[in-house]
Amino acid sequence: MALLEGLRVVCQNMSVLPGCMAHHHAARLLSSSAVLSRYRAPMEPPKKTEEDVPAESREPRSDLVEKFWDPDCMSSAELRKLSLQQTREAFQRREGDCGSSEVQVAALTTKIKAMAAHMRVHRKDYHSRRGLQAMLNRRRTLLQYLRRKDFDSYAIVLSRLGLKDNYLKLERAYGQSRATK
User: Fold this and answer.
1) Between residues 98 and 178, the one the model is more confident about
2) Is the pTM of this model over 0.70?
3) Do the bridges between strand 169-173 and strand 176-180 make them parallel or antiparallel, or are there none, so unpaired?
4) Domains along the sequence of the chain with CATH
């Protein structure tokens, strides 16, 4: 079938040549192995049946599964995702909680640590530096909210993450800012 289509394509291309010359040229082209191989249908690999595959290779080997999921074999992106998932699970209020302030602060702290490590190596990555600053500002805002709404959980989050309490409420008076507690 593919050979007939190839013949049709070659004949269409030869129609611009004079009559006998076109037939001679087409016959010479079709006899060459290059043209035949171009229009030959690709061979499909033989399909394996269950009888061809030994029984021990059909079952998953637990040692290979453990080796595959070992953190030493993971890429840096997979390690970051795993670390972020573990952090979220550690700060959850209930199962599946990923939106509470505590979880958001902990997740941002994990991302900030990873980005800070990246910035130590790639000092001129200004785009990532802007992302780092945005994450720091977002975390600061969330910490201010958490301190205002639930001081006990704020203190717990700070102690578990190893952060300092730098939040001082600034009041503007007569054009100058003074810190008050």
Assistant:
1) 98
2) no
3) antiparallel
4) 2-39 (no CATH), 75-180 (1.10.287.10)
